[in-house]
Amino acid sequence: MTGKRLWGALAGNRFVSWLNSGRTVQFQIKPVSPDVIAVSVHDGPSSQVTVIVPLFPATGWIDDQRARLEEVRRLFSG
User: According to the model, what pLDDT value does residue 8 have?
Assistant: First the structure.
């Protein structure tokens, strides 16, 4: 999932997931409530361990992350 699609999905209060090849760990972010997201990492191919951490991001965190992504793209585009 690209950065723009990821942040758009999260802004729409939708679940996002990537690295779903089955050969690597899987990373997921799931909105739980307006103030809480659950971040999980699942190591399916090796240990079968899943770690889920609730996070309480500050208001406006998605817009902040979008701006950071754009800045990184700008810096690396030459």
Answer: 85
61-76 and 3-11 helices, crossing angle to 10°? 170
Q: Round to whole Å and give the CA distance between 38 and 36.
A: 7
Amino acid at 47: S
Structure tokens at 69: 């992504």
DSSP string, the chain: --HHHHHHHHHTT--EEE--SSSS-EEEEEEEETTEEEEEEEETTTT-EEEEEEE-PPTTHHHHHHHHHHHHHHHHT-
Under 8 Å between Cβ of 17 and 30: no
Please, how many CA atoms are within 13 Å of residue 41, restricted to the half-sphere of its CB?
7
CB atoms within 10 A of CB 56: 10
pTM: 0.75
